[in-house]
Amino acid sequence: MSRSVLNVVDGQSVAARSGRTTDVVDPATGQVFATAPLSGPEDVDAAFAAAGRAFETWRDTTPGERQRALLRIADAIEARAEEFVRVESENTGKPLGLTATEELPPMVDQIRFFAGAARVLEGRSAGEYMAGMTSMIRREPIGVVAQVTPWNYPMMMAVWKWAPAIAAGNCVVLKPSDTTPMSTVLMAELMQEFLPPGVLNVVCGDRDTGRALVAHPLPRLVSITGSVRAGMEVAGAAARDLKRTHLELGGKAPVVVFDDADLAAAAEEIAVAGFFNAGQDCTAATRVLAGPRVHDDFVAALAEQARTAALPGMPDDGDALFGPVNNPNQLARVEGFLSRLPDHASVVAGGSRAGGKLAAGYFHEATVVSGLRQDDELVQDEVFGPVISVQRFTDEDEAVRWANGVEYGLASSVWTKDHGRAMRMARRLDFGCVWINTHIPLVAEMPHGGFRHSGHGKDLSMYALEDYTRIKHVMTSLEA
Predict the structure, then answer these.
(1) Dihedral of the CA atoms 357, 363, 366, 368 (nearest 10)?
(2) CA distance linking residue 448 with residue 469, whole number of Å
(3) pLDDT, tens digit (0-9, with 9 covering 90-100), for 394-435
(4) Helix segments in 168-291, DSSP class H
(5) pTM of this prediction?
(6) Catalytic residue among 88, 90, 103, 248
(7) Looking at 171, 282, 382, 433, which residue is catalytic?
(8) What is the mean pLDDT of residues 113-142?
(9) Is position 282 annotated as part of the catalytic site?
(10) What is the pairing mode between strands 469-477 and 133-141?
(11) Cα 344 from Cα 350, distance rounded (Å)
(12) In whole angstroms, what is the distance from residue 463 CA to residue 358 CA?
């Protein structure tokens, strides 16, 4: 039986004013299980009006008051962890066990980090830089911000958006993906107990709803996690009103495995980092560059991982590493990349849509492709699915050239026992994150964000909190 979710505006759960809705599909079964509002410009106007009213008082709260609110929210989410995991899994098809262990705890920890960070935001000390005058710096909230979150980690990405914004004293209008609104709405409903009405508003809808958020005159910053195409569209629309943008976009992470790496450990960890969440992660380890002596053995080891350990499955399957891709269009995209492989490439594991009891959902096998060249589509473009490519490089310089030879600049990793080489690679790789002998761990204290077509701005860490502030110079006469 289908159920419905509602927008959360000015502290109240409300339907779209037009009464229009969209279907929400469980990607593990392909079946509609809920409806969500299809919000229009009038719903967006109402949400921003509520956020604007709330900002008049929220901006004057002390960091300690904002900290207490965020800590209470974190405690409440943690107390209802099982419910959040169930809702997230139903909406995304993710394995219940992995969602409970790998997503919910970090998410709660990140809220608690920003609760504390609100109280230690730093600024330059006051000083006399002109005779008879004292200057000081005020770091203030930006105001009302618009935020758009993706479907790959709907619950966690919502936290990455609203937690630093609210901690810094801003008010938020957030639009979740139209395919995954459930956990975001649940979170917003819970948060109304701890926040004044209008501080956090959630408006569900499609791309046109998102465009209305970006085009609205009230927000002074627009933050989006999404595709490069979406980021470029947001940047162009925001430029017309000189809004600030915070863009976390796509990735094509190089994974450079040198000849001296621990091959077995690398293959096991890279398989997890590449196939986790069906490869739907902008930092996923999906583009391996392997040294000339280990290439063949590494391909064989990675293929074995894909066949025996990196298994898709239903949410209640305790042996599954990942669930379905998010929607039929995304499944078709993954299949399209593989159908267009050049003759010199070889699929050494997987390569097909999953069948059997998984056939009704949007499942795809863990896939390994070798023999690719640097200018091939699968090397250059983000698949966002459970597909890992492997290329053979000849030396360190070629590895760097190929690693940097894409439009993205989000994340990368280096696998070697040579400390000097690891440090050289960390300096030379043009990516916002470089992992050494690991791939994909994130902590609240360290920034996440990329360069080039991967966008700009940082999530997590104090850098994210600073991104949601503005700088004001105050100068006062000592003679007055």
Answers:
(1) 130
(2) 18
(3) 999 999 999 999 999 999 999 999 999 999 999 999 999 999
(4) 182-191, 207-215, 228-239, 263-275
(5) 0.96
(6) 248
(7) 282
(8) 93
(9) yes
(10) antiparallel
(11) 17
(12) 42
